[in-house]
Specification:
Blueprint lengths: L1 H4 L27 H33 L5 H17 L9 H9 L8
Length: about 110
């Protein structure tokens, strides 16, 4: 709207132009086949650190609020979510310690009688 209202294109502002509509089509990222092997080590390290961090937070809040967390189900869910996200060129999916803390502070993690 701002581009049209303020005629930004005429003022020399670069704009993206029309954006494609609809849902993205699943496809593998445009990476050279030889690069996948190199990316595999980095991806595994990032996955391990993200999962360990998220599980530490989840287990801590689960213990505090008297519920349980199944690490195997969490790993499978995160893996599937990231696989689908990657196929449609989305963002990697992970938990955030700060969002968990805010949610808990607002009563989101507590069990209700």
């Amino acid at each position: 709207m701002a581009v049209a209202i303020f005629d930004l294109r005429a003022r020399g502002v670069a704009v993206t132009g029309p954006l494609p509509g609809g849902l993205p089509r699943p496809q593998l990222p445009a990476v050279e086949p030889a690069a996948y092997l190199g990316l595999l080590n980095d991806a595994a390290a990032i996955m391990l650190i993200s999962f360990a961090s998220g599980m530490l937070t989840a287990k801590s809040f689960a213990e505090r609020n008297h519920y349980s967390v199944d690490a195997n189900r969490e790993l499978a869910a995160l893996g599937l979510a990231n696989l689908v996200s990657g196929l449609v060129h989305g963002f990697p999916i992970t938990g955030a310690d700060s969002r968990t803390a805010v949610n808990n502070a607002m009563g989101g993690g507590a069990r209700r009688p």
